[in-house]
Model the fold of this input.
Amino acid sequence: MSRFAPGARVRVRDAWPERSAPMHLRTPHYLRGREGEVQRVLGTFPNPEAIAFGRPGEPRPLYHVLFEHKPIWNEGQEGDTVMVEIFEHWLEEA
Amino acid sequence: MAGEPTAESIALLDKLVAALKRRGVMTEEDIQARVASADRASPETGARMVARAWTDPAYRELLLRDGSAAAEAMGVRMAGNPPLGVLEDKPDLHHLVVCTLCSCYPRAVLGYPPHWYKSVAYRARAVREPRAVLAEFGTALPAGVKIRVVDSTADYRWMVLPLRPAGTEGWAEDRLAALVTRDHLVGVSLPALQGATQAA
Done:
């Protein structure tokens, strides 16, 4: 079961676990702490943070999340966007 | 980037392959089949999918709903490949695909990625200054078109369904497919009639 539906406002966790231990993360650093909108539930996939180290990857819901471009970089054109696959355990309600 | 493999890396690969065969993980036939399928994959497959979507509304609907099934319908074996998602360009929205973390690419329908797609410069810049990157590819979007960068960070692979160029009404699928290149399917440029200038 996925926690967020299309249209939900979400925030990417402002977490930096790679600073304390070697990690394999699929959440781009430029989105940490950023708010976006869920576009689509893409399905459930084994957690890459575990399988990268040969551990069993429990299934995690994956979302396509849309972000405004300009607030991320403080430059660019109004209305441009970036859409990124984010795993559920990296998202919180905004 | 790669250069010639060293004797050491070849010896390591031989040992790995031998161990995988010994344990029954794969056979020589599996390896040959995989090599053949990787070599066969080319942007022509993606181009044929786009041309069919331009002419066949039912196929277009399938392509946008389930890219993997749409690829299978064109004879591509998708088993073992990540799911394919297709991004529909609209008159006011253009998609650009990048993988900022590594170089994820829809190889099953586009073949091997070009070197620039894997470069640090493209990966860093496409997501930050997509309009400057498009300009360097010689691509001018019509006024009012918004850009949506799709950063391919996880388990899907993404391909763009570009707009059908004006002036191609009544064209057959094969002729349309010949208009579509790899760069259009990544989104760094737009299909156009040869000799025609893109609207500024």
